[in-house]
């Protein structure tokens, strides 16, 4: 008689939307997950920069929903008060863009500031090794499966340490993005949003006008275009800040002096070339990968990739457990 448990300890590397969507789906199927995140907080590009009392959603700006799965999730989050409609068919987290991701993360064990650098195959599954040389397992044995919920360029070296191929990820391409954050004591005139796909600045938004935000001091988030960001990618934030503000001042048509200015560089901001598949799963090795790289540059794409992988992993582990009985 088999003593295999229907529950499995699964390691998820990356606490952004894709990783947490995978964890959410696996938890619904009776599996336990432990999540590792190299940053100080969860959310990935669903990020909010804090500077004293100031808040800037300086990564992803909003969500849209095209499919039923993400529509259902948005409806649940809206009912919980952590998502609200913004303009047209867009939504934002409340009181910050990453609110739904943080709500999902609260249901799991998340180990922050832990950068996993290699995977070790051991009897029963996998152990993880971090940048400080610490070894992580499930506490009572190996992790039965590992999910890499990371940008494609970060998936590849980790998968290589496990000897697991990730077909198609070499072809994924991202556009970088320099982001400028600006704050003002007095409101600026004009509309709350400026979108200019052809200009040096692709997006400018009055962050303080989003639902659930403090309207004062006034805060703005400004995204440079992919072309401008690539041309200035290796400059420092201090070098980029005045360049971006000179551009933004013209678009905003203002002579106001910001009380706060800071720039942030996103190397993997927007997927330009996707992978052939929405996610990857190696059933023999029990290692998978997910991210918006599988479907496109949208928050929903990350959710769908992680949710889809979670379903496949749950089904695969269930079949393996049944075969062992």
Automatic annotation (TrEMBL):
Q: Which is an annotated Pfam family here? A: NAD_binding_8
Ranges where the Amine oxidase domain occurs:
97-267
Q: Which GO terms describe its molecular function?
A: oxidoreductase activity
Against SUPFAM superfamilies, the record matches this protein to: FAD/NAD(P)-binding domain
Q: Which residues form a coiled coil?
A: none
Quote the protein name from its UniProt record.
Answer: NAD(P)-binding protein
């Amino acid at each position: 008689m088999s003593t295999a448990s229907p529950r499995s300890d699964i390691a998820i590397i990356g606490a952004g939307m894709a990783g947490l969507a995978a964890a959410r789906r696996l938890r619904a199927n009776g599996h336990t997950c432990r999540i590792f995140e190299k940053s100080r907080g969860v959310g990935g590009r669903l990020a909010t920069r804090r500077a004293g009392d100031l808040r800037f959603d300086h990564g992803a700006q909003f969500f849209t929903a095209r499919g039923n799965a993400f529509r259902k999730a948005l409806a649940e989050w809206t009912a919980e008060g952590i998502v609200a409609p913004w303009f047209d068919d867009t939504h934002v987290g409340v009181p910050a863009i990453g609110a739904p991701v943080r709500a999902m993360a609260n249901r799991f064990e998340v180990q922050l500031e832990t950068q996993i650098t290699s995977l070790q195959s051991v009897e029963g599954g996998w152990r993880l090794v971090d940048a400080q040389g610490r070894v992580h397992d499930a506490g009572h044995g190996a992790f039965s499966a590992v999910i890499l919920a990371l940008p494609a360029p970060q998936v590849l070296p980790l998968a290589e340490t496990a000897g697991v191929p990730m077909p198609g990820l070499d072809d994924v391409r991202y556009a970088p993005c320099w982001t400028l954050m600006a704050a003002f004591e007095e409101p600026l005139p004009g509309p709350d949003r400026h979108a200019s796909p052809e200009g040096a600045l692709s997006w400018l938004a009055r962050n303080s006008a989003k639902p659930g935000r403090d309207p004062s001091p006034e805060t703005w988030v400004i995204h440079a275009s992919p072309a401008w960001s690539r041309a200035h990618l290796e400059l420092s934030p201090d070098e980029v800040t005045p360049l971006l503000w000179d551009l933004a001042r013209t678009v905003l048509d203002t002579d106001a002096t910001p009380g706060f200015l800071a720039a942030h560089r996103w190397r993997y901001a927007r997927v330009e070339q996707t992978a052939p598949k929405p996610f990857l799963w190696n059933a023999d090795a029990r290692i998978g990968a997910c991210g918006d790289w599988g479907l496109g540059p949208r928050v929903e794409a990350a959710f769908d990739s992680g949710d889809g992988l979670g379903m496949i992993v749950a089904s695969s582990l269930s079949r393996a457990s049944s075969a062992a009985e």
